[in-house]
Design brief:
alpha+beta; 2 domains; eight-stranded antiparallel sheet
Length: 253
């Protein structure tokens, strides 16, 4: 049987030569890509909004802090997590800010009041920028207000010549007395608190680095007033004792 040979002059059609209209095969892929882009955009927008809200609340409303030392024992224990009201004395506007690659993206070293709600009261527990290193936050109790005269005699605090009743929230664990010429811990002053400044002391009087050692806190350096312990982590003993359940939700005063 004779076989017919292909005519080389006749073009041959191969599967690779067949053009397929794009709309016939890419509609579903385009829809999937659009859906993926929409989901990514939604998640990105949600994250950005959440970060903005968190930063706004942290800056203007309330900020959380962890207690790393025992200078405020017995009121605050190491491992306590507290909430600090940024609105306690007014609506603060941050000043003297430095940007950084972290969260939050900036650190501010002072503030001014846009709305004034008042000034700290004696006995308030406040968080402030440590005068000797403003990258650190300290927490102490207000003892002296502007214009007050503060004096400490043999561990007893006097405000304007009268003994300050602080036994309900302080502790003194060292029975020894130190001469004020050597160390201001037990004998200090008298001094007068400057205007727009506050004299701060820790409740753990024998183990607190406070205004007896480094001076006063300016009003524009105050971050806010501590008002509640929302979590307390012991981390010692058996696992049942790791969390101090009785301190959760405790109001500070």
């Amino acid at each position: 049987m004779a076989h017919e040979e292909d005519d080389p002059s006749t073009p041959q059609k191969h599967s690779s030569d067949i053009a397929v209209p794009p709309e016939e095969t890419s509609v579903e892929e385009a829809a999937a890509q659009t859906t993926r882009k929409s989901l990514v955009r939604e998640y990105a927008e949600a994250i950005v909004i959440a970060l903005i809200l968190a930063l706004t609340i942290r800056t203007f409303v309330v900020q959380a802090f962890k207690i790393p030392s025992g200078s405020m024992i017995p009121t605050l224990l190491i491992g306590d997590h507290i909430l600090v009201s940024k609105l306690a004395y007014g609506l603060q506007w941050p000043q003297d800010c430095k940007f950084q690659v972290s969260f939050p993206p900036m650190t501010c070293y002072s503030s001014t009041m846009l709305l004034d709600f008042g000034t700290p009261n004696r006995g308030d527990i406040i968080v402030f920028r440590f005068p000797e290193d403003e990258d650190k936050d300290f927490i102490k109790r207000v003892i002296g207000l502007p214009g007050d005269t503060i004096e400490i005699k043999n561990k007893i605090v006097y405000v304007n010549g009268k003994r300050y009743e602080d036994t309900a929230f302080t502790q003194r664990i060292d029975p020894g007395l130190i001469d004020g010429r050597i160390n201001p811990r037990d004998n200090f002053g008298p001094v007068t608190v400057p205007q727009e400044s506050y004299f701060m002391m820790g409740d753990n009087r024998d183990q607190s680095l406070d205004s007896r050692f480094w001076g006063y806190v300016k009003f524009n350096k105050i971050k806010g007033r501590a008002f509640m312990t929302y979590w307390s982590w012991n981390g010692q003993g058996s696992w049942k004792d790791w969390v101090r359940w009785d301190r959760i939700g405790k109001v500070l005063h």
